[in-house]
Specification:
The structure is a homodimer of 161-residue chains. Chain A is an alpha+beta fold. Chain A has one domain (14-159): Arc Repressor Mutant, subunit A (Orthogonal Bundle). Helix content of chain A is 47%, strand content 18%. Chain A has 6 helices and 5 strands. In chain A, strands 4-3-5 form a 3-stranded mixed beta sheet. The longest helix of chain A is centred in the N-terminal third of the chain and has 22 residues, at 7-28. Chain A is globular, with a radius of gyration of 17 Å. Chains A and B meet through strand 3, helix 5 and strand 5 of A and strand 3, helix 5 and strand 5 of B. The structure holds zinc ion (4 copies). The site of one zinc ion has 7 residues of chain A, from helix 6. Chain A binds a DNA duplex (30 and 30 nucleotides) through helix 4.
DNA sequence: GGCGGCGGTGATACACTGTAACAAACCCGC
DNA sequence: GCGGGTTTGTTACAGTGTATCACCGCCGCC
């Protein structure tokens, strides 16, 4: 199970993310182009899930426009390499700092107050889900598990304003 | 745990669904209007998840057009009453024949081959998820769990064509 | 050097999904 | 009949994602 440790830590993570991404791409013989780098950085810098159009706007500057379609292509690439996750319930994207094992289930903890998204995993949930699917005669290919609620920090902030 | 028993059973379910929906609305003092009835019927008749625009098109006839916005409103109502589920990973809707207990988690089994969606539930998964969230200091409000894969019928069909 | 394939990007247009705002119709109790 | 809440129609718009084609840069090959 993994937790973000606050915005400072997230920010520090951004550089790590970029270094790791470059290593992953080099290792797999893929190109970590400037656009892909910028998109990943934009996703990693903000502590919350970013929409593709938000990223496009953030990367655009007067005179240099980045079209959403380019962002989508970069995101597709980054998702294939496991560097970014898509949050289906938000139509948004987050960076992934954990090299997940293939087939490992991920639980997204989405805070409705601060918009932050943490990742967790649980062998208990995974095992139970596997048994449930087997009983149902269903062969899984991939699954999404997203929980919306209040993160610890926001809950404390609400109790003692 | 629940399984569809094929298209014939789904079709038979449609009438039951409508009767149950009418009973639920009467009991809660809500209106089960013709539009809401038609939308629920459209969702229930097809064995697969339907998009809002698909439903609008299906309900439209030459001379009588049903706008998507009307379908969305009916779907919102039906979802509030627990008669319809939204499948976030598909932007689509399915009927629900099981009166879920409040707070009960639902697992959607989405067949990538036939497009059918079954519902399952598992106290094991639910308990494991609850403990995982508690460890993470996260207070859940609601969660979605959707699994894409191959249903039993489609897997058999693929093995022996 | 020239050439052709290949992956990445730019640019435009388009399809699909969902919501806001306002007016008209409907229902129901007074 | 009247007033007020709910439902529906209609239009317009915002947000999300994809198709298509052209262009560029790179690298291997002739
Ligand atoms: Zn991850
Ligand atoms: Zn929070
Ligand atoms: Zn259900
Ligand atoms: Zn199937």
């Amino acid at each position: 199970m993994h937790r973000h440790e606050g915005h400072a830590a997230c920010h520090a993570d951004a550089d790590d993310m970029l270094a790791r991404a470059e290593a992953v791409c080099r290792e797999r013989g893929l190109q970590f182009t400037p656009l892909r780098r910028d998109v990943l950085e934009a996703v990693a810098e903000s502590g919350k899930a970013q929409g593709a159009y938000d990223i496009a706007e953030r990367l655009s500057a007067p005179g240099k426009r980045v079209a959403p379609v380019s962002v989508y292509r970069a995101l597709d690439f980054l998702m294939e390499q496991g560097l970014v996750h898509r949050i289906a319930s938000r139509n948004a994207f987050i960076p992934c700092a954990h090299g997940h094992a293939p087939g490992e289930g991920v639980i997204f903890l989405i805070c409705r107050s601060c918009g932050g998204v943490d990742e967790a995993s649980s062998v208990e949930v995974e095992g139970g889900l596997g048994r449930t699917l087997e009983r149902a005669g269903f062969t899984p290919v991939h699954s999404i598990l997203e929980v919306e609620g209040d993160c610890g920090a926001c809950r404390e902030r609400m109790q003692a304003p």
